[in-house]
Amino acid sequence: PDSITVGELANRMSEKAADLVKSLFKMGMMVTVNQAIDQDTAELLVTEFGHNIKRVSESDIDIDTAADVDADATLTARPPVVTIMGHVDHGKTSLLDAIRGENVVSGEAGGITQHIGAYQVKLPSGDRVTFLDTPGHEAFSEMRARGANVTDIVVLVVAADDGLRPQTVEAINHTKAAGVPMIVAINKIDKPEARAQRVREELLQHEIVVEELGGDVQDVEVSALQKTNLDGLLEAIALQAEILELRANPDRAAEGTVIEAKLDKGRGPLATVLVERGTLRVGDIFVVGAASGRVRAMIDDHGRQVKEAGPAMPVEVLGLGAVPSAGDKLTVVENEARAREVAEYRQTVLDRKRTTAAPMSLEHMFANKA
Ligand code: GDP
Ligand code: MG
Questions:
Q1: Which atom from ligand 1 is nearest to the alpha carbon of 228?
Q2: Residue 29's pLDDT is what?
Q3: Residue 4: beta bridge partners?
Q4: Which of 234, 245, 251, 291 sits at a 20 to 30 Å CA gap from 320?
Q5: Signal peptide: which range, if any (predicted)?
C-alpha cells in the first residue's frame, strides 16, 4: 500500500503516535492518528525519528511489584483494562452499552450478555479489550484506595453539548493521580449544539492537550446514541495499549482482583474476578481477602461456563468461602492447608488493623473495666 495511518506507522516505529503528529505538525501537516499519510511523508518521518527510535527496555516494563516477579521471557501480550469516567449524564453507560452491543453479540451463540461487572470485546484485529462495567470515579478511587490499580487506560467521556463539568474535573484528577493514560471521548456529537472544539479548549485549562491540538492525549468524537465512530474509539484504545506494551505471564498460579461481589441465594458467594496474571482454572484452590475457596465454576460475560481464564479476563467465580470486597486480591495456592494458613494470617492482620485503627470509645473503656 502507498499510504499508512499515523497510528500504524507509530506502531511499527515503536514511537508515540502523538510524537509523529507533532512532527507532522511542524512540517505543516495537520493530521490525526487515524488519518493516512503518503509514502514520501512516512519515509521522511522515519528518517527524522531514525536516530532515536526508542526500544522499550526491560526496566520500562510495568510488572507486578510482588516479590515473585515474572521473568521477562514468560510475559506475553495481554488485553488492556479500561475504565470509563466522566460527568453524570455525559453518556458513560450509553457508551459502554453501545460498545458492548456492537462487538459482543455478533457471532456469539445465543448472544445473551450478563452483568458481571466487566466485559471483554474483540476487535476486528483479533485483539481484545476489557472494560470495567462500573463507570464512575467512586469505584475507581475506591479500588485504588485499597491498593488495587487494575485500570490501564481511562476513557474520559465529555458531552460535546455540555463541556467540562465538576465530575469531569474530578475524573481528570483521579486519572492523573493514578498515573493512568487517558483517552478523551467527545460524546453526543450528533446534537446540533455539540461543540467539540470547545471541549478540547476547556481541557487545556487542566493541562490536557489533545492530539487535535498538537498534544499527546488521543481525542475521539463519538455518538453513543447513534453508535458513531465507536470503531475510532476502540482503535484509539488499541493504539494506547500498544504503546503501553501490556504483558503478563499466563503460565503460573493465578492472581486477580475482585471487581464485584455478592451473596446469591442459590449459588452462594459470587465474585467477579479480573485475572491479572497466570491462568485461573476450575478446581484451583485460592485465598481471597481473608477467606479461602476452591473454584467450583467460572462464568464469563456471556453467561457461559468456562474452564479457565487468563490475564485481563473477567470471570464470575463460584466456590468462595465468604463474600469478599471489591479490590480484594485473589491468589491461587498449592493446597488447602496453605490456603487456610494464608487466610488465617490475613485475618490476623485485618483484626490487628481494626483494633489499632479504631480508637476505643469511652463506652468501650468503661465496658472493659466493668
Ligand atoms: P451517564 O450518567 O454518564 O452514564 O450517562 P447515560 O449513558 O445515562 O446518558 C445520559 C443521557 O444522555 C441519556 O438520556 C442518553 O440517552 C443520552 N445520551 C448518551 N449518549 C448520547 C449521544 O451520543 N447523543 C445523544 N443525543 N444523547 C446521548
Ligand atoms: Mg450511567
A1: 23
A2: 81
A3: 37
A4: 251
A5: none
Tell me which of 89, 199, 220 to substitute to probe ligand 1's pocket, judged by most ligand atoms within 8 Å of the beta carbon: 89
* Cα–ligand 1 centroid distance for 187 (angstroms): 8
ipTM over 0.95: yes
Q: How many Å apart are CA 254 and CA 134, to the nearest integer?
A: 23
Question: Does 187 contact ligand 1 (Cβ within 6 A)?
Answer: yes
Rounded distance between C-alpha atoms, residue 153 and residue 159, angstroms: 19
89 lines ligand 1 (CB under 6 A): yes
Q: Quote the CA–CA distance of 87 and 159 in Å, as a whole number.
A: 8
Are 278 and 254 within 8 A, CB to CB? yes
CA within 13 Å, CB half, 286: 33
Q: Is 224 in the pocket of ligand 1 (CB under 6 A)?
A: yes
The pLDDT of residue 114 is 67
Ligand 2 centroid from CA 85, angstroms: 10
* CA 32-37-43 angle, 5° bins: 120
- Determine whether the annotation assigns residue 300 to a binding site: no
Ramachandran angles phi, psi of 162, nearest 5°: -125, -30
Residue nearest atom 19 in ligand 1 by C-alpha distance: 91
pLDDT tens digits along 226-238:
999 999 999 999 9
Per-residue pLDDT of 306-318, as tens digits, reads: 999 999 999 999 9
Q: Please choose from 94, 96, 138, 221 the residue to mutate so as to test ligand 1's pocket, defined by most ligand atoms within 8 A of CB.
A: 94
Residue 336 pLDDT greater than 60, yes or no = yes
What cell was used for 159?
458531552
Cα of 317 from ligand 1 centre, angstroms? 32
